[in-house]
């Protein structure tokens, strides 16, 4: 094995990180976790409820995760316990993957105009503020070279029908990411966002007419297809590894190039 192959096989050797947001084996967070594990990372996983614990625990076992802990981003005591457990087990963190978002699915249809106050605030707290809160909590455990990564979507900057308040939350999340990148950059900690195209995940299933979104993106992207979960997982690996050491404050698209299009492909006009 050559030096290049040895480096590629162990990009995350000796690195420890927290993965939040695995819902099942079709989750983007799980695709990332598999790529990270294949390159030597040691990971802790979180789950929100007993229902998700039954899904996450078997997956965590497959990658020999030493910590599988409850975490509710709307409960400060829950997050206190999470980071205390991580500090006690490892003493430090090298990376954090934030794949957490939520909105009332009944409001992910129709007009954004009809968003309720309660769901707006709830969506913003879970989908946006949680990343800032987690970054603040992770910071004391992170050393220079550490990396934080969150997940966003094109609906943050362009109107995607029925994405509604999630688009607004993702726009705020991307702005938060940039401010965090500035705040933590002087400490050698990087903060970025990954923007996958349409994915067949549990979270996406709550969006009305999501199949049409998949079809439209695939037929008009420069690659004429949507990205795969494995491709998104590999991009997350890159962003959390030292290969991206000079990148911070960026939104990295993994969508077959769909985000660059100003109109439909000629054959679809």
TrEMBL record:
Pfam (any one): adh_short_C2
Listed CDD domains: ENR_SDR
EC numbers on record: 1.3.1.9
UniProt keyword annotation of Oxidoreductase present: yes
Keywords, comma-separated and alphabetical: Fatty acid biosynthesis, Fatty acid metabolism, Lipid biosynthesis, Lipid metabolism, NAD, Oxidoreductase
UniProt-annotated catalytic positions: 153 (proton acceptor), 163 (proton acceptor)
Reaction(s) this enzyme catalyzes, per UniProt: a 2,3-saturated acyl-[ACP] + NAD(+) = a (2E)-enoyl-[ACP] + NADH + H(+)
Any GO molecular function: enoyl-[acyl-carrier-protein] reductase (NADH) activity
Positions with a binding annotation for NAD(+): 21, 27-28, 48, 100, 170
Pathway(s) of this molecule: Lipid metabolism; fatty acid biosynthesis
Source superkingdom: Bacteria
GO biological process entries: fatty acid biosynthetic process
Family listed: Belongs to the short-chain dehydrogenases/reductases (SDR) family. FabI subfamily.
The name this protein goes by in its record: Enoyl-[acyl-carrier-protein] reductase [NADH]
Species whose genome carries this gene: Sphingobium ummariense RL-3
């Amino acid at each position: 094995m050559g030096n290049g192959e040895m480096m590629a096989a162990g990009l995350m050797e000796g690195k420890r990180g927290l993965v939040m947001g695995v819902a099942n084996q079709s989750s983007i967070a799980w695709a990332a976790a598999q790529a990270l594990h294949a390159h030597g990372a040691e990971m802790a996983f979180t789950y929100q409820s007993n229902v998700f614990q039954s899904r996450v625990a078997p997956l965590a076992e497959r990658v020999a995760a030493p910590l599988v802990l409850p975490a509710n981003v709307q409960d400060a005591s829950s997050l206190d316990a999470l980071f205390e457990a991580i500090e006690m087990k490892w003493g430090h963190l090298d990376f954090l993957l934030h794949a957490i978002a939520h909105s009332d699915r009944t409001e992910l249809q129709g007009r954004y105009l009809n968003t309720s106050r309660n769901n707006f605030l709830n969506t913003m707290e879970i989908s946006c503020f949680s990343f800032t809160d987690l970054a603040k909590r992770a910071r004391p455990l992170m050393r220079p070279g550490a990396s934080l990564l969150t997940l966003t979507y094109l609906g943050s900057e362009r109107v995607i029908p029925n994405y509604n308040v999630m688009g607004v939350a993702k726009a705020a999340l991307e702005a938060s990411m940039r401010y965090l990148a500035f705040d933590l950059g002087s400490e050698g900690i990087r903060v970025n966002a990954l923007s996958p195209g349409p994915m067949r995940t549990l979270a996406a299933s709550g969006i009305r007419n999501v199949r049409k979104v998949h079809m439209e993106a695939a037929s008009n992207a420069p690659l004429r297809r949507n990205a795969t979960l494995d491709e998104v997982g590999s991009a997350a690996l890159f962003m959390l590894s030292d290969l991206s050491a000079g990148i911070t404050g960026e939104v990295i698209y993994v969508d077959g190039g769909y985000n660059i299009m100003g109109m439909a492909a000629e054959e679809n006009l």
